[in-house]
Design brief:
Chain lengths: ~80, ~400
């Protein structure tokens, strides 16, 4: 199965918490329901906080993968 | 006179000296003597040391010969973990909860380089260990099970008695880090089933540089500090007698006083929780019951915990943050991460024994504005970052 095409990409590499979550929150708000945002981050806090934020806000955490060159790629779908 | 900020809300980090501890400290400081020598001054020092040991033992339901004085909770925890491992014959496995203090986790992890295996048991969203999961992790070669009495970041009281049963069923020892509960909650070593129990002086209105390990008869220990035969060969080095006498006095006083304070402190915690509910996007951590009465932990979404601390400090309010976003080498709080809780913007408020509604109200007066300012700053920062990245692309 291929990944849903990301509607938006956010580069948060080098940015510490809470900025990745702040940007994610705004990016998700700007998506249509069903849209997907891809977020790049290398702050270890983001790894914990992004899935937790999705749970708190009833948004769909599609997953994360290691990024070539360091950090992670997170994918979030606007669920409501 | 201890100088503390106007509104000191970090009792879980350290506490000011209890008046009885100060009196004991000063009296002992002027009565120097080596308790291991044989002349009059030394005998008086020995008597004070013995009396202090009896006081500490009585405060935790232990017998005096089980009490080992140390330089603090950290040393006591290191002695318990490392000392038990060095005394072990065949058992080569440890079980630790994922939310232990690093004074337990670090010496446990250090043993993995010395032929030991460590299993970490996770927690639920309230920070509580599942006794069944812990029992399932205990093996026939488990030496030590480590479970705190209450968590230092979120205040969750752990199922220690169940952990004791699980450990003892396989012949393992239970180590209980009780630094947050000694002198705060009713505590009886035998009732908890703790073979090893760690306490700290400065968290219970005693002086810093003092702590103790209770080592029951089942717990065989090799010392970590070597050099003499003090503390029944479990901890070498001249005893910090003024500190020990002060810690013992504080502990005795606190065991008597704490029960009467509980309802007031719980009321303050509740007052704070209701106030926090009025601030959008605040998540309060910890369980609805079985928790420390004087501690409230929460995360404020979209702000940096340390920035908030600085703003509050400027207003004379001292709280603690579990998150450390400014130091980029620092990992998020292992406790909040294990709970699956938001780690940024984390704040821990913990009340002193004489805290009152004015302390809570002062915090609640300043907090909403500080949070709004920081959120606005974070929003402006992220907008600036986005403009810059659009220009760059």
């Amino acid at each position: 199965m291929t990944e849903a095409q990301a509607t938006a990409t956010l580069d948060c590499l080098g940015l510490a918490c809470p900025i990745p979550v702040v940007r994610l929150a705004r990016a998700v708000a700007e998506l249509q329901v069903g849209g997907v945002v891809e977020l790049l981050a290398d702050d270890p806090g983001a790894r914990v906080d992004i899935p937790v934020w999705c749970r708190l806000k009833d948004q769909e955490f599609l997953g994360q993968r290691d990024r070539v060159g360091g950090g992670w790629v997170f994918r979030v779908r606007r669920a409501r | 006179m201890t100088v503390l900020p106007e509104t000191y809300l970090d009792a879980a980090s350290t506490t000011p000296l209890h008046p009885e501890a100060r009196a004991a400290l000063l009296a002992a400081a002027d009565a120097a003597g080596d308790p291991s020598r044989l002349y009059g001054r030394a005998r008086r020092a020995r008597m004070l040391l013995d009396r202090s040991r009896e006081q500490v033992a009585a405060a935790v339901g232990a017998s005096p010969d089980e009490v080992v004085f140390t330089s603090g909770g950290t040393e006591a925890a290191n002695l318990a973990v490392t000392g038990a491992a060095r005394a072990a014959r065949r058992r080569r496995h440890l079980v630790v909860s994922a939310v232990e203090h690093t004074a337990v986790l670090a010496p446990a992890r250090a043993l993995t380089g010395q032929g030991f295996e460590v299993t970490e048991v996770g927690v639920d969203r309230f920070g509580r260990v599942d006794p069944a999961a812990l029992a399932a992790a205990v093996r026939d070669d488990t030496l030590l099970v480590c479970l705190q009495h209450a968590n230092h970041e979120v205040g969750t009281v752990q199922p220690v008695r169940e952990a004791a049963e699980a450990a003892h069923a396989r012949g393992a020892l239970l180590l209980v880090d009780a630094c947050q509960t000694v002198g705060r909650l009713p505590l009886d070593r035998a009732e908890l089933g703790a073979d090893l129990l760690v306490g700290s002086g400065h968290k219970v209105y005693g002086p810093p540089g003092t702590g103790f390990l209770v080592a029951g008869r089942a717990a065989r220990l090799r010392p970590v500090l070597l050099g003499d035969e003090r503390e029944r060969r479990r901890r070498a080095g001249m005893e910090n007698l003024p500190g020990i006498a002060a810690m013992a006095a504080a502990l005795s006083a606190r065991v008597g006083e704490a029960p009467a304070e509980r309802q007031r402190l719980e009321g303050l915690a509740e007052r704070l929780r209701s106030g926090l509910a009025a601030i959008p996007d605040v998540v309060v951590h910890g369980p609805p019951s079985d928790r420390l009465p004087h501690l409230v932990a929460f995360s404020i979404l979209y702000i940096e915990g340390e920035a908030l601390l600085l703003l509050l400090d400027a207003k004379g309010i001292a709280v603690h943050s579990g998150s450390s976003c400014t130091a980029d080498t620092q990992e998020p709080s292992h406790v909040l991460a294990a709970m699956g809780a938001i780690t940024h913007g984390s704040v821990r408020v913990s009340f002193l024994r004489d805290a009152g509604e004015a302390d809570v109200d002062r915090l609640l007066e300043v907090l909403p504005g500080a949070v709004a300012d920081l959120r606005e700053m974070a929003e402006l920062d992220s907008q600036a970052i986005e403009r810059a990245s659009r220009r760059g692309s």
